[in-house]
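Suppose you are handed only these lines of text.
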Amino acid sequence: MNKKTAHELNNLLVNKKISSVELTKAVLDRIDKTEGKVQAYVTVTREDALKQAKAADSRISELPDTRIPLLTGIPIAIKDNMCTKGVLTTCSSKILANYIPPYNATVVEKIKAAGAVIVGKANMDEFAMGSSTENSGLHPTYNPWDLERVPGGSSGGSAAAVAANECILATGSDTGGSIRQPASFCGVVGFKPTYGRVSRYGLIAFASSLDQIGPLTKDVTDTAILMNVLVGYDPKDSTSVNQPVPDYQKALIDNVKNLKIGYIKELLGQGIDQEVKASIEQAMKKLEELGAKLIEVSMPSFEHAVATYYLIAPAEASSNLARYDGVKFGHRSKEAKDLLTMYYNTRREGFGAEVKRRIMLGTYALSAGYYDAYYLKALKVRTLIKQDFDRAFMKYDVLLSPTAPSIAFKFGEKTADPLAMYISDIATIPINLAGLPAISLPCGFSKKAPIGLQIIGRAFDEETVLRAAFTYEQNTDWHKQIPEL
Amino acid sequence: MAITKKDVEHVAKLARLGLSEEEIELFTRQLSAILDFAGSLQKLDTKNILPTSHAIPMKNVLREDKVVTCQNTEDILANAPAEEDHMFRVPRIIE
Amino acid sequence: MSYETVIGLETHAQLATESKMFCGCPTKFGAKPNTNICPVCTGQPGVLPVTNKKAIELAIKTAIALNCKIEPQSVFARKNYFYPDLPKGYQVSQYELPLATNGHLEIEVGGNIRKIGIIRVHLEEDAGKSIHQGAGRILGSASSLIDYNRTGTPLIEIVSEPDIRSPKEAAVFMQALANLLQYIGVCDAKMEEGSLRCDANLSVRERGSSEFGVRTELKNMNSFKAVEKALLFEEKRHTEVLADGGKISQETRFFDDTTNTTHGMRGKEEAHDYRYFPEPDLVPVAPDKKWVEAIRSALGELPEERKNRFIANHRLSSNDAFLLISQRATADFFEECVILLNKPKIIANWILGDLQAYLNARNLTIKQANFSPVQLVELIQLIDKGTISGKIAKTVLIKVLETGNSVKDVIAESGMTQMSDEGTLVKIVQSVLAANPKQVEQYKAGKTTIIAFLVGQVMKETKGRANPGLANKILKQELDT
Ligand SMILES: [Zn+2]
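From them, the structure of the protein bound to zinc ion can be written out as follows.
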């Protein structure tokens, strides 16, 4: 039953065909069985989960069927960069290896209030910096479709856990593609909402102006259901948008007739694997058959997106990560004879190579004499990228591209050359720079590894993205494929 | 733009990052490559372009001046690597 | 050669809000260490700031009172540096786009009005406090303890133009600024308690030169006196070095109030690189006209305006008017009295004299004292009627302040009404004359001024209750017959 989706399981739970305790046990059993191969979790909260499941069961028996929240009793994994009060939250970093947050992230509060059962904290690239989860300071996570391949990142643990049926759904965070790219690599659905839709309060910051929380699920319907729980204005987050939120399940309409879809020329040319390109073109054909209008669109500023991102994100990160200094929480070096020595050694021992690299890069980009040439320049190019989207959305309802230029790569393939790893984020990064909503959903396989289709929407128009994705999903079978483990 | 070993050492100091000799060498090379790549932005004409700090523009997000007492101060202190007299202890400060 | 001193001041004032700048923790003083803290102000991973509206309003209020231009949009920025009392590793401040710019404050020095320019007013958050163990200060201490209670308290920074020309002027400027901030209710402005802090920079140049000399920055001045003393020392040091043909090096120096000297830090200062950039967790502050106007009208008459009105309408000396307006409650008290009794000069004398002395001695404000304008006016009217003497009135005032009883009750209880009954006084006068034959002799020999001594004796006998005029008259009658 752990292979089912949340909306299928809700039906079984409400009709008392199964109990949440049974379901949660099934998920925990699955974790026991496959976690040795996948290593999706940093922490499994076994006892807590069973307690929550019991509470969910009594809620189900007490409430009238129509008043039971859809996620009641459904096991969920939380990316380990979202604070859970009293439960270890490491950000997959040695520097936070012992950190017990004194508070819950807003999304965690919402998930608990919705009755979902938190089964554990999912592994990730340290501080969400990476595209393969190889940068986890604790352990790697393996792609359930091919254990020699990476699950993508940074939400690699979340995506792998969903794909391996080690949970029913999961949360991820997306700064430059960290939900969508692992969703693509693991053959699941991943959605990054518009910046400001979901509260960032309690999300351990990587790059504050780009970070956004979203769902990783087995199908688009579950994405809409989890979106309904996650979104909403939060007075604790100044960048959270005070706007009414629609019911995203109502956006699940199997119809794309006359929908104007722009496919991005720059993301279907050079640097894209032939098999990925072929799958995307097939998906385009499918959408056309279903009545959508597909037109090529050029986004000339995209060639600068990676450079822009890799100045802005590290700059913000260099400041966000200054608080890990051994004074208030987390790791403190034993070599700390004076304050400066403590700083240097704590941060040397606590941070991994990629985190150090980005702190260095960001510090440099902000430092005296370089601010205008690098950081300010990047903010201006960010405007150009936004303008490209504004122009495109005057003509098209949604935009389309592959989520990643390739299928999941093998371990170690890109670790030696950070720049090559950065460039592989080309399709997802521009969306974060513009703050837009975008989904990745399965659209094919190559060498038995999944391929992801990305659909991008206007700011706050998550509904059209979900509608296009839902229609595609309803008329294909890719999302029903399950990896053998 | 090539950056030097000295630049890397200076930046590491600003960021309070202890780096090994190998890391300094490695970062000198890698950061040079990345900054070279980022140098492509210089070609773009952005003379009349305003910078974007927030993708979704907003203003005046304010809260009322109301005291909300935190119930978890002890949990905050419990994370202290070194505590004394209800304070966070740090080793001696030499400027 | 003649030198001119150039001084600029950078003032930090804690804003009088209930809660902190970006979280709901109380700003109250004196709590047990690390009890007024929360995840936000201790920089826990994942927390976000939300700006206190009152802090913005108080800053706008200050900017208006300092005749500044309120900028249509101001932006918070992160000032990045590592220090244990700064939990996030950066201070949220304002940098490129401050809240307000380009104002001035008028001060009075030696009877001259001086207009001191204000470059900018901006908002920021305070840091925590470090307690250095094993020594009174950083150097030599074995370890330090950090208390984050103060972290995140809202501050405004007020930066003056280098328009100040003497240490005395600097002290007057600080006092005037403190009075203003207190008056408009923005800050209690107590330098000794740290709610008002000031750094100064000073340079000296040849008189007539338009270029600035090399400046030094002064820190650790914890009172208005200290500001003046530190600057005096530094002015003298600069002048002597320059007169000797030497050079001043640009540096930060600390004031030592035990020796009244300043000293630089040993060794080389590391050049700061704060890597300011716009705070991505906060959005711009863009006060619209309506909001600013509402704050402006709630502000009412500014102290400067009120002072001028006191001088013009009540014919007060500029000094008295200045003292009255230096605290809003005092000025209010004065005005309420004048409405009841149109004797502004006498009222001002009472307020600035005995009343203020009583309050100062007990560290009270006029509001905290159990005393109303009606009571002061009643007291003055009783003197006018001759019911009590001016001297007795002073005693009555203290009794009223101490007990909280009414003026009438205090007078009745202690029988302090003035003795104006001639028959009783004649008897007392006669006994005084009998007891002081020497003085009587002197009077008769022509030294008539001795009568003042004899009046004094009568007052002593009557415990001050005798009507002094009447006593004088009766004494003369008795002596001259
Ligand atoms: Zn707080």
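What can we learn from it? Chain B touches chain A through 51 residues (CB under 8 Å). The domain at 5-42 of chain B is CATH 1.10.20.60 (Histone, subunit A).
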